[in-house]
Amino acid sequence: MTTPFSTADEQDTAGDRPKADRPEADRHDVAVIGAGPAGLSAAMVLGRQQRRVALVDSGRARNAPAREMHMVLSRDGFPPSEYRALATAELDAYDHIDKISGTVTTITGSVGEFVLRLDDDREIQASRILLATGMTDHLIDLPGLAERWGRGVYHCAYCHGFESRGRTIGVVALRAADAVFARYLADRFSDDVALYRLDGVEIDAKMLALAQAGDVRIVDGHVTGIEGEEPTLRLLMADGTTHEREVIFHRPDARQSSPLGADLGCDIDPDWDSILVDAQHRTGVDGVYAAGDATQLRDLPNPVGFVATSAGQGQTAAIWIETELFTQNLG
Ligand SMILES: Cc1cc2nc3c(=O)[nH]c(=O)nc-3n(C[C@H](O)[C@H](O)[C@H](O)COP(=O)(O)OP(=O)(O)OC[C@H]3O[C@@H](n4cnc5c(N)ncnc54)[C@H](O)[C@@H]3O)c2cc1C
């Protein structure tokens, strides 16, 4: 667990702000919950517009286990923790942003007068809410998996496929659709992709044939554990054999990191467990916006969760929040 903010450094910095927008001293214009790429980006936009922002974070960055991140312009291959630290430090330039360490446990009230309660009983009042709370990957209890997660065992062909090119790849399937994922990896990155199953995971003949048609090798039996380090990882099989692979891909189930979206009455996609938002990142609950991995645009078939897309969504959401806050004063 990482803690981006060392102290609860709430301050009243309303004095040098546009008078019409100045909230009462103990209130914030916007509470941004979650300081990953989505929340940090939103906070910067709103801080630059001199809105008083409460940025609350519980220090559980999704990609914290990863050694490096990719597809982030000017930071390709950068450690995610350093990226967060840099982005967090940049917010110090905007003294209307109160960075608060803690977990928001409940949100009551309604638009214009939300009340957030933290796990240590602190209270924050805010006019608007941005949920940037992310998703949590629920790893199965497979010996050796958790300690190699993001460090030899990867879940995403965009984030780590390129670094796996030309290597021997093992895909540890959790569901039938992982057969298609294995075929994708074989199509893009490697001539040696093998599909492994976990105990109890059934993949029907049609899906297996689809993988085989893309030169994916189907391995009989089931995996009981992982040993070794990248690039000499070993998959332990129930029959006592071991299979060496240079890199392993495995896609765990991901679920909302926080129940706040559901608690507030936001629509949640039943298949992906994502908060459904419109193009302005409104959830449908008045005054509640959402951005980042936790969300899915209503028109899209599935969520898209990356560092840069989350930062972009946070920025978009913040701009629409700012628009709403300003136009409400126009009369
Ligand atoms: C192993 C791994 C490797 C990855 N590699 C890449 C990569 O190379 N490139 C890439 O683009 N993407 C990568 N990703 C995806 C990337 O991590 C996410 O897309 C990105 O972090 C999403 O940003 P976010 O701001 O939506 O959520 P997060 O980064 O998950 O941040 C959400 C924050 O909200 C906080 N929070 C949650 N609930 C509460 C609450 N109730 N109160 C207060 N705070 C709360 C959490 O503590 C957390 O800090 C990777 C993911 C994993 C798991």
UniProtKB/TrEMBL annotation:
<feature type="compositionally biased region" description="Basic and acidic residues">
    <location>
        <begin position="14"/>
        <end position="25"/>
    </location>
</feature>
<protein>
    <submittedName>
        <fullName>Thioredoxin reductase</fullName>
    </submittedName>
</protein>
<feature type="domain" description="FAD/NAD(P)-binding">
    <location>
        <begin position="28"/>
        <end position="295"/>
    </location>
</feature>
<dbReference type="InterPro" id="IPR036188">
    <property type="entry name" value="FAD/NAD-bd_sf"/>
</dbReference>
<keyword id="KW-0285">Flavoprotein</keyword>
<dbReference type="GO" id="GO:0004791">
    <property type="term" value="F:thioredoxin-disulfide reductase (NADPH) activity"/>
</dbReference>
<dbReference type="InterPro" id="IPR050097">
    <property type="entry name" value="Ferredoxin-NADP_redctase_2"/>
</dbReference>
<dbReference type="InterPro" id="IPR023753">
    <property type="entry name" value="FAD/NAD-binding_dom"/>
</dbReference>
<feature type="region of interest" description="Disordered">
    <location>
        <begin position="1"/>
        <end position="25"/>
    </location>
</feature>
<dbReference type="Pfam" id="PF07992">
    <property type="entry name" value="Pyr_redox_2"/>
</dbReference>
<keyword id="KW-0560">Oxidoreductase</keyword>
